[in-house]
Design goal:
Order of helices and strands: EEEHEHEHEHHHH
Number of strands: 6
Structural class: alpha/beta
Helix content: 25-40%
Oligomer: single chain
Strand content: 15-25%
Strand order of the largest sheet: 1-2-4-3-5-6
Distance between the termini: 30 Å
């Protein structure tokens, strides 16, 4: 069941998929930067055996989910309006940061938090490893100038180290839709 739920300020494109077996849990999946809820599709057959799944497209990060990147508080409230009363939250990359922020704001609604390829802070700090700020600024500039090139590079980084990176890279690329470089840069 697809829908658009949320607060007046932020409307989320969501999709609810009931468990195909006995539902033991509710699971909310939050995608990463430059992606959509479709990134989760290969995992759905396994997840739906035991969980009701809510997929969310994050405005400003997912093509067609909205052109503006909303304020964090408004986005967290929209997720709360779209999500089940209690659930496990799984966030990939930037979606992991969003899931962690949601869990901190609404601990009574969270059964568990799982982050995948995520980091509390992607930018290097004196006491935290991460990518150098200048590198991320250059990546942001590439997003504005050539968004498809930036996404190809990003997907290459994501599959680095995989046993078979090429098929994974193709799978990520196949799920990409056109998106504005300004939106991608704002999402960074």
């Amino acid at each position: 069941v697809a829908g658009r739920l949320g607060t007046d300020a932020v409307r989320l494109a969501t999709e609810f998929l009931p468990a195909t077996g006995a539902a033991q849990q509710s699971l909310v999946l939050l995608h990463g930067w430059g992606s959509t809820r479709d990134v989760w599709r290969p995992l759905l057959p396994a997840l739906r055996r035991w969980a009701d799944v809510t997929l969310v497209d994050i405005p400003g990060l997912a093509p067609a989910a909205g052109d503006d990147l909303p304020a964090l508080e408004a986005l967290l409230e929209a997720i709360a309006a779209a999500a089940p009363p209690q659930a496990c939250y799984l966030g990939w990359s930037l979606g992991g940061q969003l899931a962690a922020a949601f869990c901190a704001r609404h601990p009574d609604r969270v059964i568990a938090l799982v982050t995948l390829c995520s980091n509390p802070c992607f930018v290097a700090q004196p006491d935290w490893p991460g990518r150098p700020a200048a590198e991320l600024a250059g990546f942001r500039d590439t997003c504005r100038a050539d968004p498809q090139r930036a996404l190809r590079r990003f997907d290459s980084l994501q599959v680095a180290g995989a046993d078979s990176p090429r098929p994974l890279w193709r799978q990520l690329q196949a799920g990409r839709a056109s998106v504005s470089g300004q939106i991608l840069a704002a999402g960074l």
